[in-house]
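User:
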Amino acid sequence: MFGLKPIPVVLATLVFWVLGYVWYGVVFMDAWMAGQGIPADQAGSFDIYMVGGILITLLQVVGLAFVLSWRNVSGISDAVKTALTLWFLLALPIIMYAYLYLPAHNSTLLMIDASHLLVGWLVSAVILTVMK
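Assistant: Predicted structure:
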């Protein structure tokens, strides 16, 4: 797959996706739903979106794998630094658009979404590097 090893990409994608399920479906579910204005009785009505979620996660992991490969990252420390830099320069500013332009300026949603991507990118970078 574009010069990338498929097993590390698939594993990193699955781990990141499961992390998202735990992040939004268990740990921060109530705060995220309240921040989005979603009633508690609609908690299970978003299962169909998980298919799209895994595709979005795969794209993120492939992009991260490309950058790690281009930088020839070989150690966990460099992988973490690379993922952290990418998150700070790309993911965080993109997520901040919603915070800045939506009338609610919901700091809780910003923190939940940004921290999910931070942890997901860090874990994925480590998996991709260890299984290189």
